[in-house]
Known about the structure:
Blueprint: H1 2-25, E1 26-28, H2 29-34, E2 38-44, E3 49-59, E4 65-69, E5 74-77, E6 85-87, E7 91-95, E8 100-109, E9 122-124, H3 131-143, H4 149-159, H5 172-186, E10 193-197, E11 209-220, E12 224-232, E13 237-247, E14 250-259, E15 267-274, E16 279-285
Parallel strand pairs: 1-4
Antiparallel strand pairs: 2-3, 2-9, 3-8, 4-7, 5-6, 5-9, 6-8, 10-11, 11-14, 12-13, 12-15, 15-16
Helix pairs in contact: 3-4, 3-5, 4-5
Amino acid sequence: xxxxxxxxxxxxxxxxxxxxxxxxxxxxxxxxxxxxxxxxxxxxxxxxxxxxxxxxxxxxxxxxxxxxxxxxxxxxxxxxxxxxxxxxxxxxxxxxxxxxxxxxxxxxxxxxxxxxxxxxxxxxxxxxxxxxxxxxxxxxxxxxxxxxxxxxxxxxxxxxxxxxxxxxxxxxxxxxxxxxxxxxxxxxxxxxxxxxxxxxxxxxxxxxxxxxxxxxxxxxxxxxxxxxxxxxxxxxxxxxxxxxxxxxxxxxxxxxxxxxxxxxxxxxxxxxxxxxxxxxxxxxxx
Length: 286
């Protein structure tokens, strides 16, 4: 029995000692590149999200080295017109001394006002993103949203301050999951409408709000005529939805599309005015 106890203690002590050493020996690619231990060749495979980066790591030393690519690291585009990439899936790997290893990297674009990366565009290792983007990247990894378009929209909501209403694509469960998480980490309120941003190649239009779609509910106590339009913060009509239409008393739900591409960002109001004096406003912000 005494021999067994001694062996057990030795094994446990060995386990406690080795774990920190292993963690220390795994280097980030950024640190390894700064120390001159590796050379990196990073290029885009094209596209907004998914397996969008090919990375070659050349070990310049004669030692076998362990590396890590962290969730939440930003890969910087060398073309200022194209988007940087946020890494959404972590990796740890070994590169033998003097050898080159190629890995594919999962990521998402994180500059909504820039163009989609083209195939073979060059990148550098960059630095870690801010804490909010890192949290979102880890959430994407946890839920395996690597190619999820709603997750890409969520990244732009954090990186470019896009509206939470722009997280719209995909199934309702994923959309609600992402909206609620981004709302929690940013403090933004989920709006009662959906926002579509322009993805045109025109740099002047990239990342600008194109349309806002939602419902405008209103109730009328009597038969009357109704006018509904969208106004800016100065009370100027910018889009008429309909004018002086006869209504019976009751409850109504109007589905609307607000065309915003040529309008400045700011606060707007959908307003209902009836001939009997009934009024209702709804705030719209982009």
